[in-house]
Known about the structure:
This protein is of the alpha/beta class. The protein has twelve helices and 15 strands.
Amino acid sequence: MKLKLPSRNLFLCMVFIMISSLALADVKVGVVLPTSGAIATFGQENINGLKLAMEKIKKSSKQKLTLFVEDDKSEAIEATNAIRKLINVDKVSIVIGEVTSSNTLAMAPIAQENKIPLFSPAATNVKVTQVGNFISRACFTDDFQGVVMAKFAVNGLKKTKGLIVIDNSSDYSKGLGAAFKAEFLKIGGKLVTNEELTYVQKDMDFQSLLRKIKRANPEVIFLPGYYGEVGLIIKQARALGITAPFLGGDGWDSPKLFEIAGPAIKGNYISSHFAPDDKDPKVQSFVKDYEKAYKAKPGAMAALGYDAIGIVADAINRAKSTSSVDINAAILATKNYPGVTGSITIDENRNSKKAAVVLETTATDFVFKNKVAP
Ligand code: PHE
């Protein structure tokens, strides 16, 4: 008789699990990320953050979320193919992605047409959420981070003779460059040249661009690009004897930046969404969990992935039904969500208003300088 007890308990336990899983609605969540290609660390860190959050969500969520993950190889055309497949073949109710502005802008009209919510963890270009009422995001926008860095240049570093270099293949770079320029000129900065200084993604040799920069002799250089080209530009600039500090935005936020640029990366500054050395206990416990799972320190992309799926799961739990329209309404009603990238409220323009951090680069790391409220 005694021997039967544990097996009876086990049986009851299994019945309980079966009943409770029957009560869970299964919500299919599509994810489109650049996990390979030119900006692969963005997608890889983001999916790491998403998966780490899923461990917690599985334990607490009323609904069962199933992720359908697509790699777009860092290409806009692949991103549009991926979202079409997720909507038409996999029949997802919502899509998380992409993490860059150009790729999200390519996907957004498709999501909007199909009335499938598209929630971007990290695309910061102002135009992204203007595509329509099904597009929202977990991050602040470039008109904010551009102002933060212009003020940092003029008021923080006391540098007023500036120069801006744009990645002409990126909506992010163009928008962030324009936002920086407007504020920089407004608060007393001057540009040392009227010439448009540009490059495109996958360029590797920046000698002629850098010689122009050297001749123009700026005190500060704004470089709103992605880590791959930024790393090479800074490395080649220092080799050429350009000593002015470079400032950038969240697009630098990758561990690869330090590998690519080497020690030349020291002494530059960016705005971003998250600082792993932030003393906030919520941040520290996330950093600890992430390091345990992946043996690496989380950057902004990891933190934004973690928060994005957290917000989506929270919205799915609050939604009137599991229809895409109701999930979208619940996302847009998000208020004071306690994220590791800050307290997140989706505003009337479907953006997240929250603080930016300014980070300084050492030879090996980003270190926290200060936090700027919106
Ligand atoms: N904000 C960038 C873009 O819109 C992407 C990015 C976000 C990169 C956060 C790194 C960290 O393209």
